[in-house]
Design brief:
By secondary structure, this protein is an alpha+beta fold. Helix content is 52%, strand content 18%. The chain contains 5 helices and 3 strands; from the N terminus they run H-H-E-H-E-E-H-H. The chain starts with a helix and ends with a helix. Pfam families: DUF6015. InterPro entries: DUF6015.
């Protein structure tokens, strides 16, 4: 299963658009995420700056990405930790297929003020 830019954008817009993020900012976030992954479905955590990592932690809260940690023993019993971020393709596809719920109260008040 692959994730297209359109699917990722739709998933991001369904999540963050409900919280007030503009479509342009959703597109920028989508491109930001894809710039790390390219044609892969995972990246190594070491490539992220602290600010970028914060964005990934936020994306993890919504299930767009997941983390995986692996420990490998190297010379003299020292452990080398590898942290990776994975795109959760199934969750992204599910989020992309969801329809945005309209806030019924907002629509009611909009119509009241338009009629005044």
């Amino acid at each position: 299963m692959t994730v297209s830019r359109g699917e990722l954008f739709k998933a991001i817009d369904n999540i963050y658009g409900r919280k007030g993020m503009s479509k342009k900012d959703s597109e920028d976030l989508c491109d930001f995420i894809l710039s790390f992954f390219g044609y892969e479905d995972y990246i190594i955590d070491n490539v992220l700056s602290a600010a970028e990592r914060d964005v990934f932690y936020n994306l993890e809260e919504y299930g767009i990405v997941t983390t995986h940690r692996e420990e490998i023993n190297i010379v003299h019993g020292k452990a080398w930790r590898i942290n990776q971020w994975y795109l959760d393709k199934a969750k992204i596809n599910k989020l992309a297929k969801e329809e945005k719920e309209e806030d019924s109260e907002k629509n009611i008040y909009d119509s009241i003020f338009k009629n005044m």
